[in-house]
Amino acid sequence: LAAPADFPVRVNQLGYLPDGPKRATLISSATAPLAWQLRDATGAQVSSGTTTVRGADQASGQSTHLVDFGGYTGTGSGFTLVVSGQTSHPFDISAALYDGLRTDSMSFFYQQRSGIAIDAGLVGGEYARPAGHLGVAPNKGDTSVPCQAGVCDYRLDVRGGWYDAGDQGKYVVNGGIATWQVVNSFERARRSGGDAALGDATLRVPERGNGVPDVLDEARWELEFLMRMQVPAGKPSAGMAFHKMHDTEWTGLPTRPELDDKQRELHRPSTAATLNLAATAAQCARVYAPYDSAFATRCLDAARRAWTAAEADPNALAPATDNAGGGAYEDADVSDEFYWAAAELLATTGETRYRDAVTTSPHHTKPADAFWWGGTGTLGRITLATVPGVTLPADDLTRVRGLLTAAADGHLSTMAAGGYAVPIPVTGYGWGSNSAVANNAMTLAVAYEITGAQRYRAGALESLDYLLGRNALDHSYVTGYGERASENQHHRFWARQNDASLPHPPAGSFAGGPNAGLDDPVAKERLNGCAPAACYIDDIGSYSTNEVAINWNSSLAWLAAFAAERRGL
Ligand code: 9MR
After folding, report:
1. DSSP code string of 421-464
2. Any idea which residues are catalytic in this one (predicted)?
3. How far is the CA of 434 from the centre of ligand 1 (A)?
4. Average of per-residue pLDDT across 41-60
5. What is the pLDDT of residue 3?
6. Is residue 222 annotated as a catalytic residue, yes or no?
7. Over pLDDT 90: what percentage of the chain?
8. In Å, what is the CA distance from 355 to each residue of 125, 187, 241, 396?
9. CB atoms within 10 A of CB 491
10. Phi/psi-derived region of residue 96, left when phi > 0, alpha when psi is between -120 and 50, beta in every other case
């Protein structure tokens, strides 16, 4: 597949931080270094140098050179890089570069809310819509939802929460990692003194002005839903969490949330969902305590009951076959979820039973593997390594921190091996690869927090360069950010491509990204033969490369908030 060749100098189309790395990739088969110039908005040359020949980049199949203009310390907008008569897209160099993305990527979640009207005054008229799934016709849910046949004989009010992605299902497993990452973003920022930027009246949410940080208001919308998914006391499997709830069959594209007329159903409780609830509710108890102690207490109670229920029923595994009308979110190994939940409960309570569960878990000594919704061990490692006062022996905490920095070193090596500095291997371009990039960048940022070593911060920032245009396709995967950015992401309401009365996704929406599996009909038809890093198409029908999802936006929002903090270097 031919990549667009009109801009062979690939840059972060948003720009660069004055105190961050400044690198670009040139597509060229020249075997000798080439001269480059950096020009300001008037066209005047402000810096120059020569490229470094990097040769073949495996993931893209392209021959590349590295342009490193990190020696330039000026700021401004409208810069371009010029090599061999080829000019890049214009970009900024600014300390405020990521301020807008920090807000927009986090404000995504409000617009994914179920069970509340989306307010024109907050988001603009084209994005306003009535509340979805409150039992108002033609909606049938989510205030009184039955189980799938044979699963339970009662109904539950599971209103609220965030729609998962381009569909309107609500899945505890994926809600868990997304909530954890949003709340962790605040918890981390509070440690670094950057939390004011995520505080009250920083986001476009209806709770702004209530004295509680907006990021926590937003995450609470999902936490309340996650707790509603817990099987009530007195019922069989009390304390477990239902795995998910969604329509009995896939809805068409587009479908406005308030016009979905299909039946919604609860699916069998699973150990994985229960541990996602335990982990996020335990994190809630810790982080919300200074703002709302009653809510924190309710979270801790839910977390404890979930943990106990999961221990009593450790093999309730969600099957891959349960995928009619919604994603399966299957998981055959929940040992990592046990570790994560134990780590969160330990960090919050300091209690022996949770410490024992941490120290006896196989994950406590395993390498810090890349995390995603189905693999959550590293979420636990991050909490143990960074939350102050975790009651583990000092040498054990040092060892866990070492696992994270070793993983970060691995990501830096992976980045150094390719022409585009991407922290995933050539084999890593699967469904949601952009979130794999952002999550590994989060591990790099955590390593920076642990060690203070600039190479880790640089790695996290260079990962953003990839996501914002320094890549095989000359494409920014974030709506509204970059000269050539995604805008037709797969979504049932933001479906302008299919319906002129509907909007494109709002700014700050993050596409899943290249997926060499070609797991949808559009990708199969249009991307046949693509190099892994080029298996992406900005078409609403390509749900396997171009969907949005809460767990993907949470990874971008976390990273943008990290990048936006002024370091004062
Ligand atoms: O992110 C999920 C990915 O890891 C899976 O391979 C894929 C197929 O099962 O499903 C993805 O999650 C989707 C979910 O099943 C339904 N809502 C949209 C999610 C993003 O595409």
Report:
1. --SS-GGG--TTHHHHHHHHHHHHHHHHHHH--HHHHHHHHHHH
2. 490, 538, 547
3. 13
4. 98
5. 43
6. no
7. 98
8. 50, 21, 23, 12
9. 27
10. alpha
Mean pLDDT of 408-425: 98
* pLDDT mean over 314-335: 98
Which of 167, 171, 509 gets mutated to test ligand 1 (max ligand atoms within 8 A of its CB)? 167
The CA distance from 251 to 492, in Å, is 8
What class has domain 99-392? Answer: mainly alpha
* Residue type for position 412: L
Question: Has 243 been annotated as catalytic?
Answer: no
Q: How far apart are CA 140 and CA 258, in angstroms?
A: 10
Can you give the pLDDT at residue 141? 84
Q: Can you read off the two tokens belonging to residue 256?
A: 């406005």
**Residue 531: what are its φ and ψ, rounded to 5°?**
-70, 150
Pocket residue to mutate for ligand 1, from 163, 174, 536, most atoms within 8 A of Cβ = 174
Q: Report ipTM (2 d.p.).
A: 0.99
Q: Does the global pTM surpass 0.95?
A: yes
What's the Cα-to-Cα distance from 68 to each of 23, 243, 290, 356, 461, rounded to whole Å? Answer: 5, 48, 45, 49, 14
Q: Are 9 and 468 in contact (CB under 8 A)?
A: no
Using one digit for the tens of pLDDT, what is the confidence trace for 466-484?
999 999 999 999 999 999 9
The residue whose CA is least distant from atom 12 of ligand 1 is: 327
| Distance between Cα 178 and ligand 1 center (Å) | 13
